Amino acid sequence: MSARRKVYVEGSQPDIQVPFAEVDLTGGEPPVRLYDTSGPGSDPEVGLPPLRGPWIAARGDVAPVRGAGTPLAGSRPTQLAYARAGVVTPEMEFVAIREGVDPSVVREEIAAGRAVLPANVNHPESEPMIIGRRFLVKVNANIGTSAVTSSIAEEVEKLTWATRWGADTVMDLSTGKRIHETREAIIRNSAVPIGTVPIYQALEKVGGDPVKLSWEVFRDTVVEQCEQGVDYMTVHAGVLMRYVPLAVERVTGIVSRGGSIMAAWCLAHHEENFLYTNFPELCEILARYDVTFSLGDGLRPGSIADANDEAQFSELRTLGELTTVAWEHGVQVMIEGPGHVPMHKIKENVDLQQEVCHEAPFYTLGPLTTDIAPAYDHITSAIGAAMIGMYGTAMLCYVTPKEHLGLPDRDDVKAGVIAYKIAAHAADLAKGHPGAQAWDDALSKARFEFRWEDQFNLALDPETARAYHDQTLPAQPAKTAHFCSMCGPKFCSMKITQELKAYAEKGMKDKSEEFVEAGGKVYLPLA
Amino acid sequence: MSARRKVYVEGSQPDIQVPFAEVDLTGGEPPVRLYDTSGPGSDPEVGLPPLRGPWIAARGDVAPVRGAGTPLAGSRPTQLAYARAGVVTPEMEFVAIREGVDPSVVREEIAAGRAVLPANVNHPESEPMIIGRRFLVKVNANIGTSAVTSSIAEEVEKLTWATRWGADTVMDLSTGKRIHETREAIIRNSAVPIGTVPIYQALEKVGGDPVKLSWEVFRDTVVEQCEQGVDYMTVHAGVLMRYVPLAVERVTGIVSRGGSIMAAWCLAHHEENFLYTNFPELCEILARYDVTFSLGDGLRPGSIADANDEAQFSELRTLGELTTVAWEHGVQVMIEGPGHVPMHKIKENVDLQQEVCHEAPFYTLGPLTTDIAPAYDHITSAIGAAMIGMYGTAMLCYVTPKEHLGLPDRDDVKAGVIAYKIAAHAADLAKGHPGAQAWDDALSKARFEFRWEDQFNLALDPETARAYHDQTLPAQPAKTAHFCSMCGPKFCSMKITQELKAYAEKGMKDKSEEFVEAGGKVYLPLA
Hints:
Number of helices of chain A: 20
Largest interface: A-B, 145 and 144 residues
Oligomer: homodimer
CATH superfamily of the domain at 139-436 in chain A: Radical SAM ThiC family, central domain
Pfam family, one (chains A, B): ThiC_Rad_SAM
Strand order of the largest sheet of chain A: 8-9-10-11-12-13-14-15
GO molecular function, one term (chains A, B): 4 iron, 4 sulfur cluster binding
Shape of chain A: globular
Function (chains A, B): Catalyzes the synthesis of the hydroxymethylpyrimidine phosphate (HMP-P) moiety of thiamine from aminoimidazole ribotide (AIR) in a radical S-adenosyl-L-methionine (SAM)-dependent reaction.
Number of strands of chain A: 15
CATH architecture of the domain at 139-436 in chain A: Alpha-Beta Barrel
Helix content of chain A: 40-55%
Organism (chains A, B): Phytohabitans houttuyneae
Largest sheet of chain A: 8 strands, parallel, barrel
Strand content of chain A: 5-15%
Distance between the termini of chain A: 33 Å
EC number (chains A, B): 4.1.99.17
């Protein structure tokens, strides 16, 4: 029934095969190609094929092991390092085809640090994608087992489900007993970059007590995750001891899990955050595997009252300093931001982040634009996400309807991804991203011409659009509704517009008589 | 179970009783008062009591009939006329208490035409409310029978349902056979202003053929609806003959039902729109009953491609001219706008409308910020609605998930109202409306202090928030989720913030030792 097909566009070498979802249309309209994150599909027992394996091997800085390999001593096989050296890697070319831009643009944006291409040498299964303000706005979905509920199979299923609806990256935020095994299953089956927050696993290793954390435990955890193939890691290195008291008088204090873990550690030891003091060594580790930093915002606001305060912006300035350090080590960097921010304070976040972080890509949660609607925070935050995307945020971390209330299930994951794909696309339109509006135009043209199946097939969620339509008018084309519905009025407007086109050709007076003589029936559904 | 109660605040006379929803809180917190649109509740067989009856009678410009009356010859009993004369009516005082402002502000805003208080003398059951940029952003919900499906009882139920969730006005867009009876049932049971589009009923009277419409049929329909008590009417008087060809080359032509009806009429008769040519007489009719104009945007864009084009803005300029004419007749006016508009073109709509319509209140559908998501247009449009509200739009017309696809059912009405209440409140926050943030602050404080029941009772939708919470963690306080969830991390952040407050008092070093000695347990849920 669906007219969506996966097609591949070949690059400069036969193994660069860039996927798109192609939608065939009726009425003589050309097919429409949409960005596609769904991956090649996989057998969870086997995992995905190592698409990038040969490219990584060919660069000669990794010793082959299984699909990818172990970085050679002293090597920094990062996309940033290659971009700076003037090399357009196959990954960059793949991304250029995907985004519809010249490969030189991709290379330049990565070299300047304005974009990241998260691609651990040990995650060769991933289809390259890019995060940067000159490219399509991306969406991240969070999944992960908890101590008590989900199984590994369920999480792999959530991964597949999230990318089916358009998630560009997935963060595995598992806690509990089987973190390593869960992550292994997710990475081996993921065609999108996988992010993690290593402090969660480190905390499990010390029995859940943040006071017992140490740089050594954290470092070993990071190496373990680098070896597995994690593409980007959230590190709360900007939660400095002197910032913690700034959060004391807030309405909602510290709401970031990682932020509160590090604050607790600093508080107990009365020492500076070990992620900050050991940051250069951390950079060296990430550089060896081409793992991208996602510098965490441990002091992000958890309520409208706390938005844009000194705690939040102090940490942001420190993330800017750390960005420079990471770049010196050849490591790709993006910066995490927002949380809860009212609409009129959103732009300031992007402007300040771009300034103090030297245009490194911004990656924000929401923001939620009001606190009053638990159970609808995918909507309170889609508003903020669309706006912050318009102002230049490169990737949006989704929020599901269960935010603040419980764990997202399959339906919540879908609701969150869809709301954020809407926000991201609205932002692409507002930024005037080349080609973004072609999708809207194709769908609206189908709508205006009553090509219902084309409209469904072009929809972000074809199944639900079709189901809603069939629910009230399975066979009949016209029903009533005031604004802009595909009912009587649209039928009329189409007819009228067609008449008007004839008028423009023949002159209105003659046509008017002809129209009345013909019965003047433009309102068939109401007659 | 719910701690929400309806309370009334008395004005300067005992029959001015202004309703609020008061939420009792635990933890020694004072109760929170929320704006309440739900009305006193009614027996559909009897209708609501005529709250405003005595106020209308006391002004002496209406001869009593049933609850309200018939305007005396030559009288213009409009709130605008009274405001200009320096009179603060009981309706204005009611509104002032409701909005938390001085009555003089209400009078001044109405007198200047910057706000409307839609209150037909024949709808004495309504609780006064105001629409203007200096006040809380309002939400309209559309309901109405179609030719084939809904019953009158169902529509009254939808009215009650929509206002329960916060709809500030309701438009009855019924078509088909029993328009008059449906409207009668709705008005007699409505505590919120009721809007209509009289051309729909006029069209039914001429058998559904727009060519057979005439000024006389329309005029008689308007009088009929004025007599019944409709509070505001959409009139597409700005669809001038010369603008119609401007819509020919659009992607989606004319998508407004009223706009296409009038375009069809002009096209068939080759005469200027009779709503425009007879506008002064129409003003005289509306003035007699204090019916507010909602000047319709018949040429609003139906797709991203058509936004802010010459057809749309030409009509808007004409609506500005008509605003002046209506004001000369003492008639209150608001202006309808948007449809589909990408984010970067939203502000221009408000700025131009405020300029050419002399600051008359703006009342917009959405706008939808992308065309790609049928089945989710409550979200595509909540983004635009929040933004256009922030820029100064006074009332937002909701969009339901069924937009473009079918007729909204009960669930769709709720989804639309909730999404729009979020947008309106986000806009109130962004505009810095006095008192708006108190709601967010109370909820966030409850969240941070784990007063779960308080959080639910303060939520825009307490039932769903409670249900989502109980679904995953009925008894247990901690589960895992990355960002900002009410799980382990929040528990920690609260504990840490409490520790930090003690630190600030005692000095960090001592406290650090004490903290470690005490077990350093800030992470109980994870331990």
